[in-house]
Amino acid sequence: MSYKTQKKLLLISFLLIPLLLMGLFFLFPFFRLFYMSFTDWDGIMPDYNFTGIDNYVEVFQTPDVWVALRNNVIYILNGVLQNIIALLFAVLLTVKIRGRNFYKASIFLPFIINSAAIAFMFTFLFDFERGPINAVLTSLGVEPVGFLSNLKIVNFSLAGISLWRYTGYTMILYIAAFQSINPEVYESAMIDGAGTWQNFIYITLPGIKTIVELNLFLTLSGGLQAFVEPFIITKGGPVNASNTFVLYTINAFTQFNRYGFAAAMAVVLLVLVLILTAIQKKLIFKGD
């Protein structure tokens, strides 16, 4: 057996198990989900009927689905704000200032806290009658705010929790990207008379372009998949005002036993992520 053949066999043997695992835990479930989206399976009984594209038609004709998508837009816009704040923190904490490691750890800490713990903590903070935020507002003579009961602001309250939690993670990615830029480039620019703002615009931003794209993708996909906060804190209420696309999908299966419809919604979500990501890459990054 030649060395070239042995090399190919070795590579195939190393790749075989990962490929099998990917097929078992990703490709097969996906194609199974896609197939079931064309059925009326209830997720329990072994029998089901093929319904064609009826589930997909219903997804786009259901008003509550569009309400859920509108709520997801709030999370996406909140994610854009999160990136701006994280980038600002990254710039400030890249400079050698006293205690910067403490500040980094403090900002990053919310990301490693359990999601349920964070949800219950903010449930207490946002409580209308006994919450400390409303207690402070009342002491200042301001009417208490229904952070979780007001239909107009409940989604902003929940999205604010995500902002607080994920800003530190986004910041760390930006800081790591800054450190990958060669310091000699900045030195050369300073010699040529470039200021701080010009360095940021013409050196820093192009140098972290890939990380910006990654963070925007995470913002987009994360905003469309928002689930934990409305599920634990409001259960989609009040009056479905804080329902999100994923929460609506899960409720369609768990509460109404409509697996086929829920599968169609999951496929639509995947397509939405792919389309919006392609638009983002085309418009913002010129298809690079």
Written overview of the protein:
The protein has helices at 3-36, 54-61, 63-94, 100-112, 115-125, 132-139, 154-179, 183-191, 196-207, 209-224, 228-234, 245-254, 259-284. It has 288 residues and is mostly helical. It has one domain: MetI-like fold (Orthogonal Bundle), CATH 1.10.3720. Helix 2 (54-61) crosses helix 13 (259-284) and helix 3 (63-94) crosses helix 12. The longest helix is centred in the N-terminal third of the chain and has 34 residues, at 3-36. It starts with a helix and ends with a helix.
Task: Describe the protein's topology.
Elements (H helix, E strand, L loop, with lengths): L2 H34 L17 H8 L1 H32 L5 H13 L2 H11 L6 H8 L14 H26 L3 H9 L4 H12 L1 H16 L3 H7 L10 H10 L4 H26 L4
Main location: membrane
Subcellular location: Cell membrane
Family: Belongs to the binding-protein-dependent transport system permease family.
What would the keywords be for this entry?
288 residues; MetI-like fold; 0% strand; mainly alpha
What is the CATH T-level topology?
Answer: MetI-like fold
- Strand content is under 5%
How many H/I helical runs? Answer: 13
Summed over residues and divided by their number, the pLDDT gives a mean of 89
Classify the oligomer.
single chain
Number of strands: 0
Distance between the termini: 43 Å
Helix/strand-derived class? mainly alpha
Task: Return the CATH class.
Answer: Mainly Alpha
Taken from the alpha-carbon principal axes, the silhouette is: flat
Low-confidence segments, given as residue ranges, are: none
CATH architecture: Orthogonal Bundle
Summarize the amount of helix as a percent range. over 70%
What do we call the CATH homologous superfamily? MetI-like
Number of domains: 1
Radius of gyration: 24 Å
Sheet with most strands: none
**SSE sequence, one letter per element:** HHHHHHHHHHHHH
